[in-house]
Structures are given as C-alpha cells and as structure tokens.
C-alpha cells in the first residue's frame, strides 16, 4: 500500500529515517552505545586478514562504500568484485578469510553463486540481506540483517542506505575487535551513527529544490556524476538511479578520473552532479569541478554550508546538506540523489516503480 505517496519509490525514500534507526539497532546496543553482532550471529574480526566483498548493482556500490569503511575504521584490506565476475574469475583468494555479500533480495543469481563458490573454497561467508529467510540468508554462515522492510520499487533506495548503515556499524565493530577503535572512539562513532535518522530527514527536505532542478535534468540526454573518496561510490549509485528510472544516460566517475577521458564530454549542455561534502577530499574535488566550470558544464554541487562557503564555483548550483561526520556522508548524500532520479523520472513520464526491462529480483544470470 502506497498510503498517501504517489509511488512506492517515494514512500521508500521517506521511510529511510525510521528504517535506518531499526537497522542501527541490530548492530548497536542503543542504551550502552556499544557495537554488537545481530542476535544469534557470531563473527569475530580479530583474526580476519582480508575480506572479499561482492554484490550486484546497487548492492555493489554499497559494498564499495563498505570497503572504504573496513579499511578506514578497522584497517582490514578488502577485495571487491561484481558478483558476475567473482563467481567465474577463479582468483586466488590468498589470505582472504571472510567473504561478505550484499543483497536486498537474497536471491540474486550471480551473488548466490558467488556465495556458494566462496563456501566451496572454505571461506567463512556473511550476507548483508534484507529479506529474512531468503536463500542467501539460509546459506550464509553469518546473517547481517538490514531492517529496511519490504522494498517494492524496483530502484533500490532504503535498502541501499540500510546496507550502508549495516556496513558502517560492522566496520566499527571490526575496529573494536582488532583494537583499532578504542572504547571512547566506539562510543563517539555510534553516537554519530545514531544521528543518521535526523540527518536523513533533513536531506529529504531538499526535495523541493531538487524537484526544481529535475525539470532541467529532464531536458538532457546525458549526465555525469563525480565524487571522491567516500563519495565516489555514490557518484556511481546516483548515475545508476538516474539511468534506470529516467532512461537518461548517466555515468559516475571518480572525480580524479575526469581528466583521463570524460572531460572530453563536457560542454555547456552537460549537467555534472558533484558529491562534495566538506571532508578531506573536498579541495581536490573542487579543483576538478573548476575544470568542468571552465568548459561551461552545468554544475550541481551537493555539499554542506562550509563547502558552499569555501568552494564557490562560478555558475554552479548548490544543494546544501547539514554538516556531518564522514562516516555518515554516504548514507545521507544518497538521499538527494534518489530524489533527483525520482523527480526527473516523473518529469519524463516514465514508470517509476516498474522501469522497463528491469525486475526487482534477478534470479537468472
Ligand atoms: C538498482 C537495483 C539493482 C539491484 C541488483 C541486486 O536500483 O535495484 O541494481 O541492486 O539487482 O539486487 P539484490 O540486492 O536483491 O541482490
């Protein structure tokens, strides 16, 4: 039931503050602020030498953020593959001790086959999964639930941000297990994660401004999304969202890659969406944006107040989000990207919840 919402996708975007809080509750004891494993699950990161992450589509972008999280907060090196490559690549797994898969449905054929392959290689397997009782939830050694509730819209929204929340808390947990995160830092990080619902609510408030921008986006045939560091996976997720529901061709790039090819595409008709919270990557991202501006590209900058004050780029438009800790930016900045895709699709008159050629769960390879 869509309730008062126009589409399931819109409803699911609006549910994020609540389901993020549920998901966090599975990984953090909210009364003590200590990380924990979800009920009935056992996973100790202290002896894990290397993690292999794998998933498809939006789950893959969540896994990419997950890699940044595990490397930053737990200092565990990670490998990452799309599942359709992992299952056939037959790569030497070397010192990988744990394989983590990310799947909303828990049924995606390539991800399931990858999980089975990892098991056959003697790896411990874990799945970040939204559907309880799904095949992956039954077969993995460790189940890491996202509590997003049923996701009906084909384009993943709340499942994605809940995957990020699960991976962020798990990375903090891993850091604690390994002595990389001390007790004070653990409390600080979980306190920060608990701000996600409020910040998600504030991000949803950008909707009107995004809707105005979407009218222009809907006149375009192509779009570029750029980000660095924690925002690089989001650039790809933002592009995926736009293409799958509005059918506008979009590409997501690491901002630093711009000059290695895609800059040739920039002219005064090319919209460029830049994800640039005022974090350690900001200055570098802005220097890439200057290159876009110099060629007339139409820039939309997603940033915070200090970013908007420190990196004004001639002719760019800003969507200003609240200031937040780095660990939260992928979760919160995903929301304006979802809204941009959603409103652009509405402008285009496409079927938002059931885009052409797509299925919610891809059970064939
Ligand atoms: C994009 C989208 C797909 C899925 C992919 C994996 O919005 O929904 O790219 O993320 O098909 O599906 P799950 O997560 O069910 O394994």
From TrEMBL:
Name listed for the protein in its UniProt record: Glutamine--fructose-6-phosphate aminotransferase [isomerizing]
Keyword hit for Cytoplasm: yes
Cell compartments where the protein resides: Cytoplasm
Catalytic activity: D-fructose 6-phosphate + L-glutamine = D-glucosamine 6-phosphate + L-glutamate
Active site (catalytic residues): 360 (for fru-6p isomerization activity)
Cited function: Catalyzes the first step in hexosamine metabolism, converting fructose-6P into glucosamine-6P using glutamine as a nitrogen source.
Subunit text: Homodimer.
Keywords assigned: Aminotransferase, Cytoplasm, Glutamine amidotransferase, Repeat, Transferase
EC number(s) recorded for this UniProt protein: 2.6.1.16
GO molecular function annotation: glutamine-fructose-6-phosphate transaminase (isomerizing) activity
Keyword Signal listed: no
Source organism: Jiella mangrovi
Protein's gene: glmS
Domain SIS: 41-180, 213-355
């Amino acid at each position: 039931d869509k309730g008062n919402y126009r589409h399931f996708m819109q409803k699911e975007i609006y549910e994020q503050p609540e389901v993020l809080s549920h998901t966090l509750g599975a990984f953090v004891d909210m009364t003590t602020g200590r990380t924990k494993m979800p009920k009935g699950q056992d996973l100790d990161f202290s002896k894990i030498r290397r993690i292999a992450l794998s998933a498809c589509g939006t789950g893959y972008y969540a896994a990419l953020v997950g890699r940044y999280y595990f490397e930053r907060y737990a200092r565990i090196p990670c490998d990452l593959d799309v599942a359709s490559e992992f299952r056939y690549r037959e790569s030497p797994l070397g010192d990988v001790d744990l394989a983590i898969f990310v799947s909303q449905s828990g049924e995606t054929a390539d991800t399931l086959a990858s999980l089975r392959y990892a098991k056959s290689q003697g790896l411990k397997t874990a799945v970040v999964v939204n559907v309880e009782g799904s095949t992956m939830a039954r077969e993995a050694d460790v189940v890491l639930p996202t509590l997003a509730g049923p996701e009906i819209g084909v384009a993943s929204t709340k499942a994605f941000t809940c995957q990020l929340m699960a991976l962020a808390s798990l990375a903090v947990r891993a850091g604690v297990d390994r002595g990389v995160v001390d007790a004070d830092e653990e409390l600080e990080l979980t306190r920060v994660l608990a701000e996600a619902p409020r910040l998600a609510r504030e991000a949803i408030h950008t909707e009107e401004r995004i809707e105005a921008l979407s009218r222009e986006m809907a006149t375009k045939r192509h779009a570029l999304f750029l980000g660095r560091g924690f925002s690089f996976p989001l650039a790809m997720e933002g592009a995926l969202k736009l293409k799958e529901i509005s059918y506008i061709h979009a590409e997501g790039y690491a901002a630093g890659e711009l000059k290695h090819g895609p800059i040739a595409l920039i002219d005064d008709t090319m919209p460029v969406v830049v994800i640039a919270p005022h974090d350690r990557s900001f200055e570098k991202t802005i220097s890439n944006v200057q290159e876009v501006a110099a060629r007339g590209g139409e820039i939309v900058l997603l940033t915070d107040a200090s970013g908007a004050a420190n990196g004004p780029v001639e002719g760019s438009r800003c969507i200003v989000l609240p200031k937040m800790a780095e660990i939260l930016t992928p979760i919160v900045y995903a929301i304006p990207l979802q809204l941009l895709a959603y409103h652009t699709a509405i402008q285009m008159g496409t079927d938002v919840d059931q885009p052409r050629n797509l299925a919610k769960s891809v059970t064939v390879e």
